[in-house]
Amino acid sequence: MTSPDPSPGSSSTAPTAPGSTTSDAAATEADADADATTVPRVTELWVAPERHAPMEPRRRVEVEAGAGVVGDRWHGTRHRHVTLQSADALLEAAEALGAPVPASATRRTVTVSHGVVPTDPGARLRVGGVELEVVRVAAPCALMERSMGPGGAAALRRRGGSVLRALSSGPIAVGDPVEGLLTAPTPSRGAGPARRPDPSTP
Predict the structure, then answer these.
(1) Which of 129, 142, 152, 172 is the most exposed, fewest CB within 10 Å of its CB?
(2) Which residues pair with 68 in a beta bridge?
(3) What is residue 57's predicted lDDT score, i.e. its pLDDT?
(4) What does the pLDDT look like over 26-73, one tens digit per residue?
(5) Which helix (H) or strand (E) segment is 35 a member of?
(6) What number of other Cβ atoms are within 10 A of residue 39's Cβ?
(7) CA dist 120 → 71, 93, 124, 142, 199 (Å)
C-alpha cells in the first residue's frame, strides 16, 4: 500500500543538497549574520548641490574617476572628490559634545557603519566598486559650529574622517561594503595632520 502524502499541516524534513546537512545550512546562515555585523557598510550618503547649501540625502550616488560625486558641490575639483567618516567617530564626537551628531551635520559625503577611517595620504579604500585614495584628513571647519552647535568643531577634531580622490568610476549605494578601514585607532603619526586646518570650506 502506498503511504499517504503528508498533510499540509504536518511536519516534514526539508530536503538538503547532496552531501550537505542541516548543520551546514545553519553554519552558512550564521556566517552571513556575522558578515552583516563585521563588514563595514555604507549607512548614509549626503550631497550638496553648491557650497553652503543644505545637505541632501541619497540612496545612491555616481562617482567619476578624477572628478568626484556627480551633482555634489565638489564635483570637478582636483582632489576633494569624496569625504568619508565613520559612525563610530560620530558617537565619540557626540560624547565629547554632549549632544547627538547627525551624519549630515559634518557635511561629509559617505558615512560607514563602523571602523576607523585611515588618514595617511595614499591609503586606499574601496567603497562598493569604487576605489578611493586618501588625500588628507577632513578637519572640521567653522561651519561645524553652526551645523552641530557651539563646540562642534572641537568635538569633531580627529574624528572627521578623510578627504579622498576617486581612482575609479561607479556607483556607491547605501549598504555597499567598505574595504580598507582600520580596526584600531590610527597611530600617533596620523594624528598630526588632523591639527592642520582644512584649507577648503565644506
Answers:
(1) 142
(2) 64
(3) 97
(4) 544 544 454 556 899 999 999 999 988 899 999 999 999 999 999 999
(5) helix 22-38
(6) 14
(7) 27, 21, 9, 23, 17
